[in-house]
Amino acid sequence: MNRQNDEKTASNPRERMTMKSSGNGAPDTQSRIEQEVEATLRRFEAEAPPKAGPDFYFAVKRKIRQQEPAPRAPERLGFGRRVLVPAFFALMVVLNIVAAVLVFSSQKTELQAKEQGFSALAQEYALGRIDYAGYSK
Amino acid sequence: MIKWPAPDISSAGKERLYLDPEFLERLRAGDEDAFRSLVTQYQDLVLRVCLRFLRNKEDTEDAAQDVFVEAYRNLSGFRAEAEISTWLYRIATTKSLDAIRRKSRKKRQDGPPSAFAGPEAAEAVSAPESEDPGRILEDKERSRVLHEAIASLPENQRIAITLSRFEGLGNREIGAVLELSVVSVDSLIYRAQKNLRKWLHKYYSRQIENEG
């Protein structure tokens, strides 16, 4: 970087600018501003390029892995879908059928017992034939 | 196999080379060694570009990593005739600007906005050129002011001046990154320089006024 030889050194840039402004001969403000602008624009060439650390590649790899969608468990899901779900539904159907059969048979047994009871009563009092259809409702 | 020479990272813009078709095939096939070579070859270029925009070590590293993640995902879309460096410059610029936008949004949510180049930013980039602590401090201050001025530019001008002056890219290459014609890039750089000077004039006028 090209530096002006007559530039004074100070502990901070603002102080340096103050020193320039209060120097002998009262330099023209416009040219001072120009100097500052030029010196600042020279920083374009002066900035040091950064260097990557030794683990940069591993950080990139880690990020790629993190951003990949989480792997699913296809075996377990497949087994569940293929075997467990149909088995569950089959079991439910069987249980429903069994429950329906049990309820129906118990109702039938109860009706038959009532029929026998009424038949016996009718015979005892010689009432003839009785239609139990309406009674059972 | 990589067939290009090792890049000279001491000077900007030396890594602008084409990919060997065989190497590109390996990259597309997901060859880890090939990808590692690509990252090693271009990591400094990408970091440099991100740092020019972001001015902060943590954000820069994060953005540079994102650039290679994006490159990894889009290798199939990379045209062999395009320069790999131009492609990476484009991704790096986009990722850096995305990071700046995210940061600006967060700052707006958190509190009043400030210039994106904070006091820590100058420290992140500026390298001491002399042992004089006063001069080091002055260089840091000038870098901070310069980046504040660059941050005040419209986005396209900011990219153009950064790639031109910091990275040393020619107008044709900047045009390839920004997908603009050479004439448009020329005009962008001209306006950016004019605006920078204007901003700096105003800044130093205020400074000198305050001192007086």
Explain how this protein is built:
The complex is a heterodimer of chains A (137) and B (212). Chain A is mainly α and 137 residues long. Chain A is built from 6 helices and no strands. Chain B is an all-alpha fold and 212 residues long. Chain B contains 9 helices and no strands. Chain B is elongated. Residues 1-16 and 112-128 of chain B have low confidence and may be disordered. The chains are: A mainly alpha (137), B mainly alpha (212). At the A-B interface, helix 1, helix 2, helix 3 and helix 4 of A face helix 2, helix 3, helix 6 and helix 9 of B.
Characteristic key phrases:
heterodimer; A: 137 residues; mainly alpha; disordered N terminus; B: 212 residues; 9 helices; 0% strand; elongated
Give the SSE layout.
The complex is a heterodimer of chains A (137) and B (212).
Chain A: H1 13-21, H2 29-41, H3 43-46, H4 56-67, H5 74-125, H6 133-136
Chain B: H1 21-28, H2 32-54, H3 57-73, H4 84-110, H5 119-125, H6 133-151, H7 155-166, H8 171-178, H9 182-211
Helix pairs in contact in B: 2-3, 2-4, 3-4, 4-8, 5-6, 6-9, 7-9, 8-9
Task: Give the biggest beta sheet of chain A.
Answer: none
Helix amount of chain B: over 70%
Number of strands of chain B: 0
Uncertain ranges of chain B:
1-16, 112-128
Radius of gyration of chain B: 19 Å
**Beta-strand percentage of chain B?**
under 5%
* Number of DSSP helical runs of chain A: 6
**Terminal-residue CA separation of chain A:** 111 Å
Using only C-alpha atoms, the radius of gyration of chain A works out to 51 Å
| Largest sheet features of chain B | none
Overall pLDDT metric of chain A: 74
- DSSP strand content of chain A: under 5%
DSSP, total strands of chain A? 0
* Helix vs. strand class of chain B: mainly alpha
Low-confidence stretches of chain A: 1-26
Helix content of chain A: 55-70%
What's the mean pLDDT score of chain B?
80
